Amino acid sequence: MMKKLTWKHLSFVLMLAILVLLPFVNDSRTLIILLTQIFIFGILAMSYDILLGYTGIVSFGHAMFFGIGAYTTAVMLKQVDTTLSIFLLSIVVGMFLAGIVSFVVGLLTLRLKSHFFAMLTLAFSGLFLVVAEKWRSITYGNDGFTFRAPEMFKDRITFYFFVLACLVVVFIALYRFVQSPTGRILIAVRENEQRTKSLGFQTLHYKVIASIIAGTVASLAGSLYALSLRFVNTSVMTMDITLDALLMTIIGGVGTLVGPLLGAAVIEYAQHTLSGMARDYPIFERWIIFFGILYILAVIFFPKGIIGSIRFIISNWRRKLKAKRKTPPALSHEKEGFE
Amino acid sequence: MMNTLLKLHDVHTHIGQYHILQGVNFEAMEGQVSVLLGRNGAGKTTTLKTIMGLTPASQGDVQFQMQSIKKSPTHKVAKLGIGYVPENQGIFSDLTVEENMKVAMRKEDTAAMERQQYVLELFPDLKKFWKKAGGHLSGGQKQMLSMARAFINDSQLILIDEPSKGLAPIVVEKVMEAIVEMKKQTSIVLVEQNFMMASRIGDTYTLIDDGKTVHSGNMKELIQNEELKRKYLGIG
């Protein structure tokens, strides 16, 4: 059966077309690198949205999965070979490992109440960070290590297209997942876990499924991130990465999937611009302070995030338009007269 | 002779440090509307939550179809065939009416579709707002959706908590008609503050006061017993 073409489909195709054509119009190295970073963090933020936006789980340990992906790819490309097949295999291995870890961590922690869960994920993430620091023979500790990328990804534009393809595949897969019956149950869990249980669902299973999906997708983002830098160190497992994913999701709009993508774009662009301004204006050397202010303002004035606020404005506007159409002109004049 | 579907024997429930239920005895018979009555804070809602395993009993026993469900987790209790319509409707406001129904429908088989058809005839408003988000429905529509959701599975027993709460009298009338209609297909345990409503649709009653069962019997007897009504319900 043919599905109706909506403005959502059209804007998706239009956006994709722009992103595909962009490197042919403007092949600035800075722009390509910035967009690649946006795509990678967009994947990470979407994975976090599955937890926070669709299941209502606040995790402080999401960087652990990102780090697993980054280290798996880096170690395999350094220790085994620098071919494309090894790189692809490293993505699969990373996702598999992240899946197992998220399954075990989820099973152990998701029974707990949200704040205890958040604290435990932080503890697990810390544990992985310590392992990465101490297992120097493989990870080279805090110093990290560089590695060579497969031949075809030495060209930044080829890598840009590869990451874009990953982003599109992840977006479509996650979109279909949240629209599926399991996705609906996740939303029900987010709204009220007890109600969902009383409908006959073992909610823990669904939360673990969400955790596994979020973990594996975050690992993919980590693999791509490591390759984009051709370097990895313990920073990929720090709290900063989790906070970035959290803020991208909140600023873009939780529970929307597109929002976190937009959040990633806003934050990556802001980071890039503010740090760039430091060269001309010394005050921007402390750009992280301005960034903090931007976060605070966004959360205070746009609690629903960019997409959530846009949706709210549109639905308000539609409601007003509907009400206006329903009101007979004579009556509205009368009302004006009274006022 | 009618069979006992649900039996609570000397049930005690603690929520944190509070001892809420202190000896509830209750029976629900097959094909009947059994009403739990009592003043605000008497322990009626906790009794339903204890049956569902949401606030598990610390003492006593809860039996459904002669089987103890005291230690069963909530999802298993629901799967055994007990539907629950919580206080304040308990619908998922971000999901549409259709999605709310689909979430509740554990199996999308012919029988479930037939039941869905039946509830949509019972509550035509739901059909009208099929694609509307649950959060945008009126209080009465939310109540209807909540009841329809509990009915969509082949539940042998439905627990309904204060369905008339906060609703306009005309909507209460509709809800009552729906419960009477649902009674033809399933057994019902009803918690209700509105004695007028409870007395019109209930077959049996159990009075709870301070977390204990103080009286139970036939609803017709209670209607005539002014003393009981005055003492435990503040009516008359």
UniProtKB/TrEMBL annotation, chain A:
Single GO cellular component term: plasma membrane
Location, primary (coarse class): membrane
Transmembrane segments: 6-25, 32-51, 57-77, 84-108, 114-132, 157-178, 208-229, 241-267, 287-314
Membrane topology label: Multi-pass membrane protein
Compartments (UniProt record): Cell membrane
UniProt keyword terms in alphabetical order: Cell membrane, Membrane, Transmembrane, Transmembrane helix
Superkingdom classification of source: Bacteria
InterPro entries assigned to the protein according to its UniProt record, in alphabetical order: ABC_transp_permease, LivM-like
MF terms in GO: branched-chain amino acid transmembrane transporter activity
UniProt cross-references to PANTHER family, sorted A to Z: ABC TRANSPORTER ATP-BINDING PROTEIN, HIGH-AFFINITY BRANCHED-CHAIN AMINO ACID TRANSPORT SYSTEM PERMEASE
Protein name (database record): Branched-chain amino acid ABC transporter permease
Species whose genome carries this gene: Lysinibacillus mangiferihumi
